[in-house]
Structure formats: structure tokens, C-alpha cells
Amino acid sequence: xxxxxxxxxxxxxxxxxxxxxxxxxxxxxxxxxxxxxxxxxxxxxxxxxxxxxxxxxxxxxxxxxxxxxxxxxxxxxxxxxxxxxxxxxxxxxxxxxxxxxxxxxxxxxxxxxxxxxxxxxxxxxxxxxxxxxxxxxxxxxxxxxxxxxxxxxxxxxxx
Length: 159
Description:
By secondary structure, the chain is mainly α. Helices cover about 85% and strands about 0% of the residues.
């Protein structure tokens, strides 16, 4: 009698334990805590270097050019390689990650365009690059918004 009861209860417990496994939650946790760690550091280094020579921090074309060629573009290029190598298991997260890659690609092209504009002293290229940066920011905001929504749906706290 006990063996018969165990034979019925044990498979039900196994099935129920499978119900609590959330592959998207697992993928999100791996994505945020492991896969994106080094990519995040590279992006932060590139963006920090760019912000240090642009906007209110702009000094002169030569300083910006050197920052772009020595720090911003090389770090951002490595960042994109990291983004491309991130391992993602679920379609929901993969679609969101693709938005990030697209935004990063646009931003990288904008940095290269700024470098070219400085070389050629072409204000039209600067305007084109600024438009590209705005487009990239839009993609990155969309990525963050969708990532936060997915995390909330799967009970993952992003910090």
C-alpha cells in the first residue's frame, strides 16, 4: 500500500516541481549577473571616455579625436563583440537583446562618423552623427524598458 502511494505521489511531486521552474527567469538572472558583466564594463569605459570630451566637457577637436581613437572606439568595438557573444536561451530575452545590439551598432557608427567629421572638419557629418546618437539612445531606452518589463513579469529585480 505504501509503495503504491509513493508510486502515485512521487511523479506528481516531480511534475509540480517542474511548474516552479521559470526558464525566462533563469535566463534573465544569468544574463544580468554573468553574461553582461564584462560587456557592461567595456560600455561604461567607452561612454565615460566620450562624455569626458563631449558636451560641457568639450575642450578641442584634437582632444576629442584622441579620446575617440584611443579609448572610445576600441572599447566600444570590444563591447559590441561581447554583446554578440552573449549566450541567451530564451526567445523573449533574445529579442530584447537584439534591440540593444542594434542600438550599440548605431552608436558605434556614430562614434566613427564623429572621428571622420573631425578628420575632414565636416559639420554636416557631426550633425549626422548626432542624429545617429539620438537614434541609438532611443534603441537603448527601448531595450531597458522592455528588459525591465520582462524582469518584472518574471519576478527578477534588476539593480
